[in-house]
Write a structure and sequence with these properties.
The protein has one domain: Methanol Dehydrogenase, Chain A, CATH 2.140.10. It is 16% helix and 28% strand. The chain is built from 13 helices and 39 strands. A hairpin with a 2-residue loop joins strand 7 and strand 8. The chain starts with a helix and ends with a helix. The N terminus is likely disordered.
């Protein structure tokens, strides 16, 4: 379907903005990392050491004041029986205390709270133990992640939290290690490398511990790796089993009969040389009665199926839920949400286990709202498809066939082999990693949903490189930012209350932007969610009425948790801006919102709390840019190169999103050092690599010229805004 020239120019820019024009990312890590020094001598907690085991997690409701595992319980419902904070009392909620992390980057962790201690993580896989009453730092652990790992991380140097088991705290590090720490003092008990050191794997997900086994996956599909998840003995770190999610070279022995079966669904091509993908980078759940571990599997590598499997096929186990035996890793069943994934539609999104009465029969179900826009209800014992309906608009598929459980693709949109197509949902997903929640009292699932659009086209010149290997058309950006802003205006977020039995919407709250925080629900008939406009909000779980909100002074992506100590219920949330939207989407079309520095901290609330947050950093003063003396040709060349190499981290059109520096605000000193930073790699240890292998010095100069041009554009825009206000 042909598009107008103007539309093409705008969506081309959007492609560059959102991770597509990338040869290599080269994200500049923050100066704040210099604060993350070696931990001081640990302070021993004056509390009982966290002696968590499977029985304690299974019986979590008997100690409702704790938050013992990632989703509080093995079923990952994120429902708390605590009700001291409820629809009547929530208006009295106030800040109890806060704790600033060492690095002001994205925070995505679900804190674990046990025996009066909070265990949580910050950027660069740092671990903190805090007194749950006061916020006093008991100890912290800095894993010394190399700055280069930031270059290999698709979506920021984030971490989603720890697991606690029998007096130890377990964390996966960005550079691919699994570390066991003494819960009393933070000292390392053991450490193992879970990924090959010569491959661009990362770990951002939280470990899960089942029957004394630490289960951890990894990320890196965008960089061209093969996915798997692994079980390690919690006491020693010994590897017990590993489950590969996609087949390797068919000329070699397959690791399991299931992979031999899966290989038959990959047709043509040499996917094993391209990585294949299928990384299990986030969600897991466990049913102790059925003794089944459920793992969500990610997208293909490359994204484009015509490149990795030109003969077609479902490409198992991409975009699937896989059920295995936790003792052995033995395959039991799978369900593929997006056969032949072509759009980065992962099934790594949060999964919830529940017992629901459906058509007069109680069914043991697993529920998921993956990126592809459909809400799935499956039998969790067998993997049998029960139902699926779209919870956000979808144009890549019309519906999910009730008899086969397969999505019915829209041939005019789904296959972008011949022409550029505007697809919804976008790769950011109808729902991404931000956890949803299920309230058994209302029977509703609360989804942090997105309505997002994205242009797809095939890169006909694709080849395997060091860096991003997604196969989508390498598109340079235009400066038609007004038209791009109009397209982005169609992207929005919402909090959606969904009835999983009837597969219908109960209520919704609309937001101006996608990417809002994860969700918590409680027996107090409440739903809590943070938003990227810098608020923490409480809604009535049955009606969606807004009952309370507070400014957090920074965007919130992480899900809140709740706990109680000494009869006092608390609400806690990690507040810190980061991730793919903050990096690549930038602040297109929002010049009236001057760039600010976002701070990252744990914020804890209680009824009657009267603490206050520090005064936010003021908006950064706009420095006078250097004279624009470059030719139009050089600026245009720099525009294309910027969007190919820099836009994924510093934003489309050089308009930063608030996590990494907005390059239009560069100081005179940074302008002078530009060549040394971008070409020479002066900031490599901060995650900003040098591009001397990808570009020559003249090309770096052209990028600099484009940034200077965009700084002058912003100067004019700010002057116009000022004159209008006067």
């Amino acid at each position: 379907m042909n598009k107008s020239v103007g539309f093409r120019r705008a969506v081309f820019t959007m492609s560059a903005v959102f991770l597509l024009a990338l040869v290599t990312s080269g994200c500049e890590a923050e100066k704040e990392k210099s604060k993350a020094k070696e931990s001081p001598a640990p302070i021993v907690a004056n509390t009982k050491v966290a002696d968590v085991d499977g029985d304690r997690i299974i019986n979590a409701d008997s100690e409702a004041g704790s938050w013992l595992s990632h989703g509080r319980t093995y079923d990952e419902q994120r429902f708390s029986p605590l009700d001291q904070i409820n629809t009547d009392s929530v208006e009295k909620l106030g800040l109890a205390w806060y704790f600033d992390t060492d690095v002001d980057r994205g925070l995505e962790a679900s804190p674990i709270v046990v025996d009066g201690v909070i265990y949580t993580t910050g950027a660069w896989s740092m671990v903190y133990a805090l007194d749950a009453r006061s916020g006093e730092l008991l100890w912290k652990y800095y894993p010394k992640v190399p700055g280069m790992s930031g270059f290999e991380a698709c979506c920021g140097v984030v971490n989603r939290g720890v697991a606690v088991w029998k007096g130890r705290v377990y964390v996966g590090t960005l550079d691919g290690r699994l570390v066991a720490l003494n819960a009393e003092n933070g000292k390392v008990a053991w450490e193992v490398r879970t990924t090959p050191s010569d491959k661009p794997y990362t770990i951002t997900g939280a470990p899960r511990i089942v029957k004394g086994k630490v289960i951890i996956g990894n990320g890196g599909a965008e960089m061209g790796v093969r996915g798997y998840f692994t079980a390690y003995a919690a006491d020693t770190g010994k590897q017990l089993w590993r489950f590969y999610t996609v087949p390797g070279n068919p000329e070699l022995a397959f690791e399991s009969p299931e992979l031999e079966m899966a290989a038959k669904t990959w047709k043509g091509g040499e996917w094993w040389k391209l990585g294949g993908g299928g990384t299990a980078w986030d969600s897991m759940a466990y049913d102790p009665q059925l003794d089944l571990l459920y793992v969500g599997v990610g997208n293909g590598s490359p994204w484009v199926r015509h490149i990795r499997s030109p003969g077609g096929g479902d490409n198992l186990f991409l975009s699937s839920i896989v059920a295995v035996r936790p003792d052995t890793g033995e395959y039991v069943w799978h369900y593929q949400t997006t056969p032949g994934d072509n759009w980065d539609f992962t099934a790594t999104q949060h999964m919830i286990l529940a017992d629901l009465e459906i058509k007069g029969k109680v069914r043991k179900v697993i529920m998921q709202a993956p990126k592809n826009g459909f809400f799935y209800v499956l039998d969790r014992e067998t993997g049998e498809f029960i139902s699926a309906e779209n919870y956000v608009p979808t144009n890549w598929a019309t519906h999910v066939d009730a008899s086969t459980g397969r999505p019915v693709e829209n041939p005019q949109i789904a296959d972008y082999a011949e022409d550029l197509q505007l697809v919804t949902p976008a790769p950011v997903g109808g729902h991404n990693w931000h956890p949803m929640a299920f309230n058994p009292q209302t029977g509703l699932v609360y989804i942090p949903a997105n309505e997002v659009y994205f242009p797809f086209g095939i890169n006909s010149k694709f080849k395997l490189i060091k860096g991003w290997n997604i196969g989508v058309q390498e598109l340079a950006g235009s400066e038609d930012l007004e038209e791009l802003a109009m397209i982005q205006a169609g992207n929005k977020g919402r909090l959606l209350a969904w009835n999983p039995v009837t597969q219908t919407e109960a209520w919704r709250v609309e937001y101006n932007d996608p990417g809002n925080g994860g969700v918590l629900t409680t027996a107090g008939n409440l739903v809590f969610q943070g938003t990227i406009d810098g608020h923490l909000k409480a809604y009535s779980a049955d009606t969606g009425e807004l009952l309370w909100q507070v400014e957090t002074n920074t965007p919130v992506m992480a899900p809140p948790v709740t706990y109680s100590v000494d009869g006092q219920q608390y609400l806690a949330v990690m507040a810190g801006w980061g991730g793919s939207i903050s990096l690549s989407w930038g602040d297109i079309g929002k010049s009236d919102r001057p760039t600010i520095k976002y701070e990252s901290r744990l914020q804890v609330f209680k009824l009657g709390g009267n603490a206050t947050l520090p005064t936010p950093f003021p908006a950064r003063a706009f420095p006078e840019p250097p004279p624009l003396v470059a030719s139009t040709e050089l600026v245009d060349s720099g525009r294309d190169l910027y969007h190919a190499y820099c836009g994924v981290c510093h934003g489309g059109g050089a308009a930063g999103g608030g996590t990494l520096p907005d390059l239009r605000y560069m100081s005179e000193e940074t302008h002078q050092q530009f060549m040394g930073i971008v070409y020479g790699g002066a900031y490599q240890e901060r995650g900003m690599i040098g591009f001397h292998e990808q570009m020559d010095m003249r090309e770096v100069e052209s990028i600099h010229a484009f940034i200077i041009k965009r700084a002058h554009d912003l100067k004019s825009e700010l002057a116009q805004i000022k004159s209008h206000k006067q």
